[in-house]
Design goal:
single chain, alpha/beta, Rossmann fold, globular
Length: 303
């Protein structure tokens, strides 16, 4: 089932800055965490991988070194400092320049698909996920990494971020089985590991009542409970659901925490009563940050 090639009129600048994927720069924290998280997952049963949004090719090379058959896609791939011929020659990675919404692959082509920081760039998330689902084999695995929500608008990001609950809900609506999926927020990554579902969704209308209906059909990994008893919504900022894999603790240095609080003092005139609030915040910073690794595994209730 062939699909057309998509490119844009992007003109590569004379020098690519590091934060845009320049050559020779070390892995940033986000990508290093992505590869660490992938290394925790049980991937032995999957042989053929699609790396959507290949970037510099680091994930594809990591997979190829583990004996996987890898195909990478993206738009204007060379502009990210990706050595396409090296990937083909030295790692056996196949490259297709195309958008995720319209890929030139037959149905059920891949055992697993990895989308690392792609969905936030997609104008139509549903169309992208439906196309990914099409090229996945039955019960194939989708591994998604997206950024947590921030207030800043970033170049290229149609979405300003996600949380575990929102990602879970979107994947469920687009044909993926979230009941046994693994979900975690870790550092700069909100992660989902789900299977392609063959279960038809009940009728929903894209508005109030949909979560209630999906919950009644048992399609969330744990029951949804809301204070009004109708169970049509929940707080999505969950650290983890069904994540049973060990994670190293992430700690933000006290210096950074103090710098953030100091910036508030410099840029705002704090009334005296606010000093007590500030002292409490400083006192609780280490404890709050230490608890980032206290994961919610199989919570009884989503609230």
């Amino acid at each position: 089932m062939g699909r057309g090639k998509e490119t844009s009129a992007y003109v590569r600048p004379p020098a690519i800055p590091d934060d845009m994927g320049g050559q020779g720069d070390p892995l940033d924290d986000r990508l290093a965490d992505v590869i660490m998280l992938l290394s925790l997952l049980p991937l032995d049963e999957f042989h053929s991988f699609l790396d959507v949004g290949i970037g510099r090719g680091e994930i594809s090379k990591w997979l190829a070194r583990r004996g996987k058959s890898v195909t990478g896609t993206g738009l204007e791939i060379a502009s990210y400092g990706c050595e396409i011929e090296e990937l083909r020659r030295d790692h056996g990675v196949q490259i297709e320049e195309c958008g995720v919404e319209n890929m030139p692959f037959a149905d059920a082509s891949f055992d697993a698909v990895i989308m690392s920081h792609v969905l936030e760039h997609c104008p139509n998330v549903g169309m992208a996920l439906r196309e990914v689902r099409r090229v996945l084999k039955e019960e194939g695995c989708l591994i998604v990494f997206v950024p947590p929500h921030i207030d800043n608008v970033s170049a290229g990001h149609i979405s300003v971020g996600w949380n575990v609950g929102q990602l879970m809900y979107v994947l469920l609506l687009n044909g993926f089985d979230c009941r046994k999926g693994r979900f975690v927020e870790y550092g700069q990554n909100v992660v989902a590991v789900v299977r392609k579902s063959a279960t038809p969704l009940p009728s929903v209308r894209g508005d109030n009542g949909d979560i209630h209906i999906l919950n009644e059909h048992g399609l969330f990994p744990v029951p949804v409970r809301s204070h009004d008893g109708y169970n049509d919504g929940f707080v999505g900022r969950l650290r983890a659901v069904n994540w049973d894999l060990p994670l190293p603790p992430r700690r933000t240095g006290m210096l950074k925490a103090c710098a953030r609080c100091g910036a508030r003092i410099v840029t705002h005139v704090l009334p005296c009563e606010a000093l007590w609030w500030l002292a409490r915040k400083l006192w609780t910073v280490p404890r709050v940050l230490d608890e980032e690794n206290d994961l919610l595994i199989n919570p009884a209730v989503l609230r």
